[in-house]
Amino acid sequence: MSDRADWQPLRDELQRWNAAGRKAKLWFRDDDAIEPTPALDRLLSLANRFNVPIALAIIPQPTGKALAERLAGESRVTATVHGWTHQNYTPDDTKKQELGLHRPQAVVLDELHRGFDKLEALYGKQFVPLLVPPWNRIDDALLPHLAPFGYRAVSVFGLAKQAPIGLINTHIDIMRWHGVRGGLPHTEVIGRLVEELRIRFDGHDEPIGVMTHHLVHDDLAWDFVETLFEETADHAAIEWRPVTHFIH
Description:
Layout (H helix, E strand, L loop, with lengths): L7 H12 L4 E10 L4 H13 L3 E5 L6 H7 L5 E5 L23 H19 L3 E5 L21 E2 L11 E2 L4 E2 L1 E2 L5 E2 L2 H16 L6 E5 L6 H14 L5 E3 L8
Parallel strand pairs: 1-2, 1-10, 1-11, 2-3, 3-4, 4-5, 5-6, 7-10
Antiparallel strand pairs: 8-9
């Protein structure tokens, strides 16, 4: 376990919510699932232990029945569409993006249509009509074309802006993506979470999304997830909700 004193700022903020008789809405998204792995088993074990619902962003093209069969009995898990192949099509000097206009729009949309249909067929009632763009990036020009395929919402990163489709975003990323890979220091992630809670306390009603990537977690990242669940799962000021609660 980390030094649990690191978590005091979160406890203090949640006490403020509790004193005001309010509850913060949180949801949990984990990206890049393709097949059953020990890391996925570890994540599911934590979700079950603390009764936290998980939205799993699954890469449609390479996935198949093995993952669907593994998840079939997991009542806390929903399946969402994570692009098509999670392949980058941008030039080397720009931010990675699969769902951009670096290819013909019709090609990109056809992949998103196929991804929706494949995961819906594999997951049935566990499937959620939510698109999670790889690297949290999608060109705005694609958004108006998603609803005819069945998509009801998109999930990227940051406070939601006006869009022609519902946005159910994430706001907390526990990973360090540059330099030495692995989980960010707990104090840094907790600081961001407290900041998001303060924004909500002041009247912003958007649910707070926590984003993880089980396949690349180190001990620090796993410890963060476990401690976050320990600190919040039974807290009077926190509601961990399935992402389906936010899709209208």
